[in-house]
Amino acid sequence: MAKKKIAIAANLLLLIWFSLDMFGVKIGDKYLVEGALKEDGMFMIISIIVFLIFLYTDKIGKTIQLGWFLLQFLAHEWYTIFGKGLMGSVEGKVAYFEDCIQFINIPGRYVPDLWHIVLHVLIIIAFFATLRMPNEHQEVSSK
């Protein structure tokens, strides 16, 4: 049961962090994340539904949640690793996030800002926590 609680906590933390994207958070003259309710609202709804399915079902919820992580990887980490991706152009991504808190700025290259770095880490943590979580019938039979 401990692995399931860790997976639920990791996924809930990821969902809370992602929700900051809906309305934005500004720190001083920079954004932690700009509000993107119009652009990402549907993804927030999908994230909530996937999390609820994960929370209230056994194997199917885990499978759907892992599939959702794959899509998140393609939408986020792919840009960072390969410099291109599924969600618009790199130039558009660079321009959209130029007012966000950044550690490194390389002209013409998308480098994740602070919010995205934390998002990437939380996606990875939640993915592995979910992957390691036993199905209910496995956990009961191992006792």
Task: Provide structural commentary.
By secondary structure, the chain is mainly alpha-helical. The chain is built from six helices and two strands, in the order αββααααα. A two-stranded antiparallel ribbon has the order 1-2. β1 and β2 (30-34) form a beta hairpin. α1 runs antiparallel to α2 (37-56), α1 (2-23) packs antiparallel against α5 (114-132) and α3 packs antiparallel against α5. It is elongated. The protein starts with a helix and ends with a helix. Mean pLDDT is 86; it is low at 138-143.
Order of helices and strands: HEEHHHHH
The DSSP helix count reads 6
Number of strands: 2
- The overall average pLDDT, rounded, is 86
What percent of residues are in strands? 5-15%
Give the N-terminus to C-terminus distance in angstroms. Answer: 11 Å
Structural class by helix and strand composition: mainly alpha
Percent range for helical residues?
55-70%
Gyration radius over CA: 17 Å
Descriptive tags:
6% strand, single chain, 143 residues, two-stranded antiparallel sheet, 6 helices, mainly alpha
Can I get a quick summary?
With 143 residues, the protein is mainly alpha-helical.
Q: Any chance you could write out the topology, listing elements then pairs?
A:
Layout: H1 2-23, E1 24-27, E2 30-34, H2 37-56, H3 59-82, H4 90-96, H5 114-132, H6 136-141
Helix pairs in contact: 1-2, 1-5, 2-3, 3-5
